[in-house]
Design goal:
Distance between the termini: 130 Å
Shape: rod-shaped
Order of helices and strands: EEHHEEEHEEEEHH
Strand order of the largest sheet: 3-4-5-9-8-7-6
Radius of gyration: 39 Å
Largest sheet: 7 strands, antiparallel
CATH architecture of the largest domain: 3-Layer(aba) Sandwich
CATH topology of the largest domain: Protein Transport Mog1p, Chain A
Structural class: alpha+beta
CATH class of the largest domain: Alpha Beta
Number of helices: 5
Length: 208
């Protein structure tokens, strides 16, 4: 037996075929719209989850610091190519050696003497002429002298430097020239100078 047309409360009468078709079409459209929105939300949540995993999974923070440089081992390895004894500064244990290597005809050790953003370099210019220290310091000329542990050093106040050098001292050591320079203050340079004083005397005696 055929069912009688459904009475729609809002109309107070049965739907016409056209009204039924329109209702079903609207219902279908609403369903598809809800599915599209649901799919967008799911895709967004998946994307956010992937981003979160990437952010949490990638190591962050400060870069790993370079390991402590063994200055003595580096000097021993480089000495064979120079024909001279290379300086191994005796400095406080708190000083961190960031570099120790030959750079052309120069043996250079770079220290970070404190937690402050400052540095001090101990450079040994192999078989250097008299103006070598001035050239290394960008043309700076001595402003005086200072004696440290019995050794006289030329003193430089550097006013124009591309690498933040503000103070330097230099002295001959046989055929070489020793330059201690950096952004650290004069007393830090004096500590480094005292740490190479005996080796400078030995180099001078060998070249007498």
């Amino acid at each position: 037996m055929a069912s009688s047309p459904r009475v729609v409360a809002e109309l107070g009468r049965p739907e016409t075929p056209d009204e039924t078709a329109a209702r079903k079409a609207a219902s279908s459209h609403a369903y598809r719209s809800s599915q599209t929105m649901r799919n967008l939300l799911v895709a967004l949540l998946v994307t956010l989850a992937v981003v979160l995993i990437v952010v949490l999974g990638v190591p962050r923070g400060a870069y790993d610091e370079q390991g402590e440089i063994d200055v003595a081992a580096s000097a021993q390895a480089a000495a064979g190519s120079t024909g001279t004894e290379l300086l191994i500064p005796e400095v406080p244990d708190s000083w961190r050696a960031n570099s120790a290597r030959m750079e052309g005809a120069m043996w250079r050790v770079v220290y970070a003497p404190s937690e402050e953003p400052e540095f001090i370099r101990v450079a040994q210019l192999i078989a250097a002429d008299a103006p070598a220290a001035s050239r290394l310091l960008g043309g700076a000329t001595p402003t005086g002298t200072v004696t440290i542990d019995g050794i006289e050093w030329d003193e430089f106040t550097v006013t124009a430097s591309d690498d933040n050098v503000s103070y330097a001292i230099a002295t001959p050591a046989g055929s070489d020239t020793i330059v201690i320079y950096g952004s650290a203050p004069a007393d830090t340079a004096a500590t480094a100078a005292a740490g190479v004083a005996d080796q400078i005397r030995e180099l001078r005696e060998e070249n007498q």
